[in-house]
Write a structure and sequence with these properties.
The protein has 171 residues and is an alpha+beta fold. It has five helices and seven strands, in the order H-E-E-E-E-E-H-E-H-E-H-H. The protein is globular and about 55 Å long.
Length: 171
Amino acid sequence: MNAIASRFNATLFGPFPRFVGIPDAIPTIPVPSGYRSEICEASVVDELDAGHWSYAIGRPGGELRLLKAVAITWQGNQVVGIAMLTCDSERLSQIGIDVDISHRGHGIGSMMTAALGTEALTNDSVLYYGTTAANITSMRTALSAGFRPGWVESFTRHTDLAASGWLTSHR
């Protein structure tokens, strides 16, 4: 596929697995010992360091999606994990998570993903969790939160359009 894309002066990106939230499959995962977690108002994001939480908060190229809910996990007064529920469209929602590297491996990501998944599935939208094919840890997080493989995406970026600025000016 990359050879075909390159004939058209494009680069292929992907594959990007997408995991779907299934209502009866999402478990209730308790907050790990020593932590506290809650689903907060979307406005709390304004108070957080987007650079530190780039997987959850960072939006490439100024992309804006409607923010529906935020899950935050603390150890004491320190934020150690963030998960966001955003809308791609009226019936398609996505969960993005980020856990501080020193707190990974404790189940925080799975717990926040399951909590937001339960929240999201109350409104009849299709809920998904996206990652890269190389991020095995992230795929395990989705699976342990009850998400199931749904589809795989890939896309091309046309080098000549990107260099000309056309992609930026025609959003």
